[in-house]
């Protein structure tokens, strides 16, 4: 008879709803030396066959209102001129290469998502050289905070002829899906001023994501990458930001500590690719100009990160040229089958290259999760020790989940997991019974002592 639901004369019953079961497909392996790469399939440049090919870089993807888009940097529209922060819509996620521009002007130049304000237009008119331009580059992508509404943290650059590039800082813009547009057009509203200057970490312009009710933002300063967070409803309010100092989030930006080092571009995202123990994944490229796609994994969003080289990217037009802007597109492949869609940039006159990465995978795994939230600390500690003992003496594997007081047993077949689960149930019942028994005996001893002392004091009182 299962101890679940059985009567217990000493106190509480073992909860009957503490177990969840499941089966995972073969997840990608992350071993001592990092991930095990199977093969890389280069799909080609992002661009629909019937769209003109414009050389461009960045190539971050994002989603709003269930639609998928690519966001690019400088976009060379052939004879029509140069644009920047341009967007293409992906109508079918099963065909990730096929993407279409949302809007072009009369000359055929792609209309940028983030436009110039009146002061910037006046600045360019007054510039000594008519070829001076202002560019907004959204390396961190766009994060959706509510359906159809997102934010982007863009870098503002003033670029003069001869290659001089002056970074002004990082601004923030609200991006929304135009509900009246059937073609998926987007609207942009820039917030006044800049949030971060050149002498500060450029939060949000390296990577950004939403987790629960907060946005997490990574930003570079020199060779270091720092982490901040803010509640979704306060993205445009700098005083609401908190900064990771290595052990906690604090309100003082100057106390922030690096979480990554020596990366030029990259992306952090949540994925099932390497299983529940490593839910946070990083894809990026270092500052060393080696064209190496780097991949990392962590159990916590703050790290620490285990980052390894995955493969060296090659160009299509310029095969040996330095490749950069390495990003992941989790929507474009099945992580539960060890697959990941990635991209990188082939320098002008090239574009953004897509590739599907396939990893070696573990065999399919049965599992059972045991929740111990309602148990005492003593019970949870004892059950975790018992789980470790079971996994050492059988063909089961055991791990503690990131969520406190949750354990998981793994096995290659369902029967093995159920056997281990029954042992866990039995042990938990014994521990709870013993704990209740000790509490019961403590109460009896306490009541006996109280009675004895009452008699003593009563006798003393009569003698006095």
- The beta-strand count equals 30
- List segments where confidence is low: pLDDT < 50 over at least 5 consecutive residues: 1-17, 460-464
Shape annotation:
elongated
Task: Report the β-strand fraction as a percent range.
Answer: 35-45%
In terms of structural class, how would the helical and strand content be classed? alpha+beta
What is the end-to-end distance? 61 Å
Largest sheet: 6 strands, antiparallel
Radius of gyration: 29 Å
Q: Helicity, in percent?
A: 10-25%
SS field, number of helical segments: 3
* Overall pLDDT score: 86
Mind explaining what this structure looks like?
By secondary structure, the protein is an alpha+beta fold. It is 16% helix and 39% strand. It has helices at residues 118-126, 377-392, 414-463; strands spanning 19-24, 30-31, 34-35, 37-45, 55-64, 67-76, 82-83, 87-90, 100-101, 133-137, 142-146, 149-160, 164-177, 186-190, 207-211, 214-221, 224-231, 242-244, 249-250, 260-261, 263-270, 280-286, 292-298, 306-312, 324-328, 339-345, 352-359, 365-371, 397-400, 406-411. Strands 15, 16, 17, 18, 19 and 20 form a six-stranded antiparallel sheet that branches. A hairpin with a 7-residue loop joins strand 23 and strand 24 (306-312).
